[in-house]
Request: fold
Amino acid sequence: MSPADIASPIRSIVRRSPNIRVVLGAVSAVDTAARIVVAGEHRIPYDTLVLATGARHAYFGHDEWEPFAPGLKKIDDATAIRRRILLAFEEAALASDPARRRALLTFVIVGGGPTGVELAGALAELARKALAADFRTIDPRDARIVLIESGARVLGTFPPSLSARAARSLARLGVEVSLGAPVTACDAEGVAVGGQRLAAATVLWAAGVAASPAGRWIGATRDKLGRIVVEPDLTVPEHPEIFAIGDTAAAPGVDGRPLPGIAPVAKQQGRHVARTVLARLAGRNAPPFR
Ligand SMILES: Cc1cc2nc3c(=O)[nH]c(=O)nc-3n(C[C@H](O)[C@H](O)[C@H](O)COP(=O)(O)OP(=O)(O)OC[C@H]3O[C@@H](n4cnc5c(N)ncnc54)[C@H](O)[C@@H]3O)c2cc1C
Reply:
């Protein structure tokens, strides 16, 4: 897929809304007393603030692994990962040392959640189908794709029947799934898992996410993923003028557990905040988010 097929500039999305101003910048702080957002040299005042800064991948205290095992979050990550994968096949085609060639054709994905399972499946299809006929000195179908999950099954947050089905699909695609042992080392040569070294030139990280630091900017209570714990109406406790939504918020669902970090939740919460702001302007109370 071309990046342009799945993303468009925010400016053009809101082109027809003259009351929306787009500012490119990275927010680094919020002064809740003065009601000001700080983004580089810009200080932007607000009456109502909506924090929707999402999440990023997390390395569970091993940030030094990031250069060796990039994660997939932004389009830039995706294009960089694609380049890394294609270059591994190219280098393998030129490698004369069999061990080096083997490592170049070994792809490790750390984390068997939705992102890891999808990545492993996409990689397998790339190797077994898209690239299969493009090389002469190697057979891309020989690529070894290993999905490492420390839990007992892939897609651990889904019902066991779906995990089993995903495992069968991965096996059919020729993906090796390693369960029950976490990765304990990660470097330019590969990974260590279950006390064994696995030589791999390409390691991809899909093992976890952490919320953006928005909670720290405003000194809010956060859960263990760093998400801002919000009230049922999506406001931050003691700050009715600040909303937190999407992946950076922990909003309770009907069962009291936090809603999952998926797009429908984020989009519905965005609409809910808009309705709440309009209701407040009209002097009405808004219902909680459902
Ligand atoms: C690989 C992958 C696959 C996924 N697949 C699915 C799927 O199939 N279905 C599904 O429902 N969900 C999927 N998700 C999850 C979904 O993308 C998120 O739940 C959703 O994007 C959350 O929306 P959000 O607005 O909270 O955060 P985001 O979409 O992450 O948006 C946050 C925005 O804030 C910006 N930002 C962050 N920090 C700052 C800052 N300091 N200053 C200024 N801007 C900042 C970011 O650049 C980003 O543009 C997937 C996620 C990933 C990573």
